[in-house]
Amino acid sequence: MSETRTIRVQSLNEALDTLTVEVANSVPGELIVSGLGFRKRVFHGQDLFDALIALRTELDDAGWRLLCSGARFDVFPSGMSRSMGGARKAYIMRLGAPATDLIDVFDEAEPKSVGTVKQQKEFHDKWIRSLAEQR
Q1: Residue 60 belongs to domain spanning
Q2: What is the tally of structural domains in the chain?
Q3: d(CA 16, CA 10)
Q4: pLDDT tens-digit profile of 109-134?
Q5: What is the DSSP track for the chain?
Q6: Mind listing the pLDDT tens digit for each residue in 28-77?
Q7: pLDDT at 133
Q8: How would DSSP label each residue in 6-20?
Q9: How many CA atoms lie within 13 A of 26 on its CB side?
Q10: Residue 122 to residue 108: CA distance in whole angstroms
Q11: Model confidence over 101-115: pLDDT tens digits?
Q12: First CA to last CA across the chain, in angstroms?
């Protein structure tokens, strides 16, 4: 069984479009994407977040941003979410504070909250350092 989601995308010049993303529940870490020139393209990863990163990396290179919570610069899955839940849920990170708010990575996100894969990884590293500074 799988779930199909329609996710908005935004270009660098702020044009909007949509992608159809099929979240394959039978195969962990598999997304089947169509739209924006993708015709049933499959993206794989160790979990859903990794597959989302693979999709976003290609979109970043083409000048598009996926407008979903998993693309927010301040969102990242925990180890437990990755190992037990396939990284379908991820935490909102706030500098200097433990992450407590879990969200679905495929839920819609506002354009201003979305970043590139690189920006997301940088913020995650900064968040980890901010926790260490609190000790």
Answers
A1: 2-133
A2: 1
A3: 5
A4: 999 999 999 999 999 999 999 998 87
A5: -EEEEEEEEEETT--EEEEEEEEESSSTTEEEEEETTEEEEEEE-SSHHHHHHHHHHHHHHHTEEE-BGGGBTTEE--HHHHHHHTT-EEEEPBTTB----EEETTSB--GGGB--HHHHHHHHHHHHHHHHHT-
A6: 799 999 998 888 999 999 999 999 999 999 999 999 999 999 999 999 99
A7: 85
A8: EEEEEETT--EEEEE
A9: 4
A10: 22
A11: 999 999 999 999 999
A12: 45
Q: What is the pLDDT of residues 69-95, one digit of tens each?
A: 999 999 999 989 888 888 999 999 999
Provide the b/e sequence for 82-120 (b: ≥16 CB within 10 Å). beebbbbbbbebeeeeebeeebebbeebeeeebbbbeeb
Identity of the residue numbered 70: G
Task: For tokens 């693979």, name the residue.
Answer: 54
Interstrand relation of 102-104 and 2-11 (parallel, antiparallel or unpaired): unpaired
